[in-house]
Amino acid sequence: MRAFSFRRGPRGSRRSRTSLRTTFAASFAAVAAGVTLLVGLLSYDAAAQLVRRDQQSVFAEVVGDLRSQVRHRSLDTEDYATGDLDHDGLRDDLTRPTRADVQVLAAGGRILDRGSRALPVDAAERAITTDPEPGKVARRDIEIDGEDYRLATVALGGGRGAVQVAQQFSDTEDLLKDLQDRTLLFALLVVVSAGLFGWWLARRITGRLVRLAYAAEGVAATGRVDIQVPVVGRDEVGRLGRSFDHMLGRLAKAEDDQRRLVQDAGHELRTPLTSLRTNISLLHRIDELPPGARAELVADLAEESRELTDLVNELVDLAAGRPDDERTEELTLADVAREAAAVAGRRTGRTITLRADGPQVFEGRPAALQRAVTNLLENAAKFDRGGTAPIEIVVEGRRVTVLDRGPGIAADDLAHVFDRFYRAPGARGLPGSGLGLSIVREVATRHGGTVFAEARPGGGAALGFEVGSGAVDGGRASGRA
């Protein structure tokens, strides 16, 4: 069980987390700022132009009405006086649309009647008052008491004077300036809000990524693979977490298997090494031993050396996964069993019979499968050392069974005979490394199959394996056997 939890990463991990969240928040705020400023400025510019154009249009319309009045009617300065109590005179028609200031000038520029404030009169406007042509106009922008105005002077014609109309536009500009300030303030608030929201959103989005980064940095810094990995969610981050957790789980399992293999191998190597050391210690006295004892000592040394060699070779095969490098080819288990029977027969001197029923062609590694069948046969010969009955091989499609008439397997041992270094109590005095059957399971697993061990009716045991119908696993065996 992987219980270690890595909450904080090693030095430098917090910097990475801050950088990721800050980048996300800054990007979110930058996009919001760009959109807000663009929309705000375009909206302000459109509104400002519309207001200015509307104000100018209204003033131009008032001036146009005034010119139309003086052109089509013979009007005098008294017609624009302020004495109209009903407010339905010509002067009121001018001031009503724009709340403009109207001032009446006599010939020569003298002010006859001014509005709420006196309007300036320059030389061009004095000349307008004596102009014989009605409707002639002079325009200019003026400033009165710090306020900006538009001023138009329209001649009454015939030297009768002129009428001045002034429209204040600085208040409109002040209003637009206030609108601009409010727009910028609103944009600033939106940017700040977007940055805060982006930071909050970044925390939610990147939180699991940060925890995954902590876990990965923890593995890199400590070398431990028993780190608890967050696997919350069904999105890509959740899938990444589950994949990473599964990968660490497999690494932890492989590390545990490797540790157990080393421990078990060390334990198994002690026995032949101790025996060899004891026998070697007697070699300096070999001339003092009787001929029978000397022959027995040499035979023991040869046997123990052979067992040690077999054990080392099987350990190398099991740890390095050497059979995985073998190329696959089309074969049948009947052909594999026939070659394995010939090899095991020469090694053990036992009679081996083969019965094949309906062989099937499949993709497999012949040398690995032959090694598995040979191990089954040598195991049978080891436990049926004094037997006279032949050892049987039964091939049924993709299933191989080796049957012997030995002492059989106890019910409690059936589930463990394919475990590494496992030896039943009755087999601990027999030669062997305890790895032969575990290699059988490795080969079967790499071929998508399983192993089995059963008691044989009438005495003995039936051990074997079955290969799967799918493709051969291209990777190294998991080592879980």
UniProtKB/TrEMBL annotation:
- A Gene Ontology cellular-component term: plasma membrane
Q: Which UniProt keywords apply?
A: Kinase, Membrane, Phosphoprotein, Transferase, Transmembrane, Transmembrane helix, Two-component regulatory system
Segment forming the signal sequence: none
Cross-referenced InterPro entries, in alphabetical order? HAMP_dom (IPR003660), HATPase_C_sf (IPR036890), HATPase_dom (IPR003594), His_kinase_dom (IPR005467), HisK_dim/P_dom (IPR003661), HisK_dim/P_sf (IPR036097), Sig_transdc_His_kin-like_C (IPR004358), TCS_sensor_his_kinase (IPR050428)
Matches recorded under SMART domains: HAMP (SM00304), HATPase_c (SM00387), HisKA (SM00388)
The record's subcellular location field reads: Cell membrane
UniProt key word Transport: no
Q: Does the keyword Phosphoprotein apply?
A: yes
Task: List all membrane-crossing ranges.
Answer: 184-202
In short, the EC number is 2.7.13.3
The highest taxon in the source lineage is Bacteria
Q: Name one Pfam family in it.
A: HATPase_c
Which part of the chain is the Histidine kinase domain? 264-471
Catalytic activity annotation: ATP + protein L-histidine = ADP + protein N-phospho-L-histidine
Q: Which residues form the HAMP domain?
A: 203-256
**A molecular function (GO) term:** phosphorelay sensor kinase activity
Protein name, as recorded: histidine kinase
Species the sequence originates in: Streptomyces formicae
Instruction: Recite the lineage of the species.
Output: Bacteria, Bacillati, Actinomycetota, Actinomycetes, Kitasatosporales
